[in-house]
Write a structure and sequence with these properties.
The chain is mainly β. The protein has one helix at 60-66; strands at 26-30, 42-45, 51-53, 69-71, 80-84, 89-90, 101-104, 110-111, 119-120, 122-126, 132-134, 140-141.
């Protein structure tokens, strides 16, 4: 049961909240924006409470909200899926380079290649070839 002082969060099921309205490392959220998410893709919670794909391109304001959550399993547009927040471990991935940092790439994808221009957004570090420690960082404008 959440506290009467808890901030209401659109799109977040109250059953996913811990006492006092604290969001655990994952929540069930609805996907929107016209695109399905594949396991390990990155998105952000829109003001309407739905999840949309993250992107490193665009204005600084867009980049600042781009990385909030990573999908824990594939989910179709309009469906509800489980998304992990900062600090979670996302399992079931493949082809990761252990100990490598991963960055936000186009359309919610992640890459071990640091961008040369635009915004650099670190999303986490590979723990193994199949597990990513998701810890999104603030975007850095490379100029």
């Amino acid at each position: 049961m959440s506290s009467p002082n808890a901030i209401p969060l659109p799109g977040i099921d109250p059953a996913d909240l811990l006492g006092d309205g604290i969001i655990p490392n994952g929540a069930r959220l609805t996907v929107s924006g016209g695109s399905a998410f594949a396991l390990g893709e990155v998105g952000y919670v829109h003001t309407d409470g739905t999840v949309r794909r993250g992107t490193p391109a665009g204005t600084e304001a867009q980049a600042q909200i781009a990385v909030i959550c990573m999908v824990a399993a594939g989910v179709a547009n309009g469906a509800v899926g489980l998304f992990g927040f900062g600090g979670c471990l996302v399992t079931g991935l493949s082809g990761l380079t252990p100990a490598a940092l991963y960055y936000l790439a186009a359309a919610g994808a992640i890459t071990a290649t640091a961008p040369a221009s635009g915004y650099s957004v670190i999303v986490g570090r590979a723990v193994s070839a199949t597990v990513l420690h998701f810890f999104p960082r603030d975007p850095f404008n490379l100029g």
